[in-house]
Amino acid sequence: MKQSKVAGSTILEMVIAMLITGIVIAMAWSVFSLVLRSFDAYQSKHNDTEQLTRLNILLQKDFYKATIITRDSGGIRLFTDTTSVRYELDSSFIVRHTVVTDTFKFQVTDPVFTMNSVPVANEPRMSEEEKRIDHFNMTILFNKRAIPYFYDKKYSSQDLINRTDHAEH
Questions:
Q1: Higher local confidence (pLDDT), 66 or 2
Q2: Sheet strands side by side (includes 145-152)
Q3: What b/e readout covers 45-67, taking b as 16+ CB neighbours within 10 angstroms?
Q4: Cys bridge to 137: 47, 102, 130, 150, which one at CB 3.0-4.6 A?
Q5: What is the DSSP string of 5-70?
Q6: In terms of DSSP bridges, do strands 118-119 and 145-152 run parallel, antiparallel, or are they unpaired?
Q7: Does the pLDDT at position 169 exceed 70?
Q8: What average pLDDT does this structure show over 22-31?
């Protein structure tokens, strides 16, 4: 009977193969970890940008729909024929109060409220009409950059004539 030799590997060959496999797995894990961190950073930045865009769209829409906009203690109030929306401005966030409350965590600086280019104060003795505004601007700090936002309300002549009880028609 003839003996046949079975081809095999030595222990040294097995150790070298395992070492090479370990190096390849470590490199793949490093690349995967790097890609995952990059995706998380992108996702976070995208979510922040989406929130900033949502705030801007809501403010534009609310300004467009409003029949009267007034300065409020700590923010602005926008009135439509059926509802009102209140924006509370704080140095570190903006809260939109309506049927659903939205909170936007952005640092707000330099809010300016004007009517016919005249600053509107917010004093308790002032009437709602005296607190009416037609322009609002603020600066939002986003990713270490200051971004200015401007919102205007174009009142119709009828709105402006009807705004006081003693107006002559």
A1: 66
A2: 118-119, 107-115, 135-142, 145-152
A3: eeeeeebbeebeebbeebbeebe
A4: 150
A5: PPP---HHHHHHHHHHHHHHHHHHHHHHHHHHHHHHHHHHHHHHHHHHHHHHHHHHHHHHH-SEEE
A6: unpaired
A7: no
A8: 96
Domain boundaries, the chain: 11-161
- Token reading at 54: 């949502």
Among left, alpha and beta (phi > 0; psi -120 to 50; other), residue 127 is beta
Both tokens assigned to 144 = 């270490």
Structure tokens at 84: 């009102």
Q: From the centroid of its chain, how far is CA 59? A: 11
pLDDT tens column, 112-163: 999 988 999 888 788 888 899 999 999 999 888 999 999 999 887 766 666 5
> Which whole-number Å values give the CA distances from 118 to 68, 132, 133, 135, in the listed order?
17, 11, 9, 10
Q: Length of the chain, please?
A: 169
What pLDDT does 160 receive?
67
* pTM of the predicted structure, to 2 decimals: 0.74
**How much is the mean pLDDT over the chain?**
88
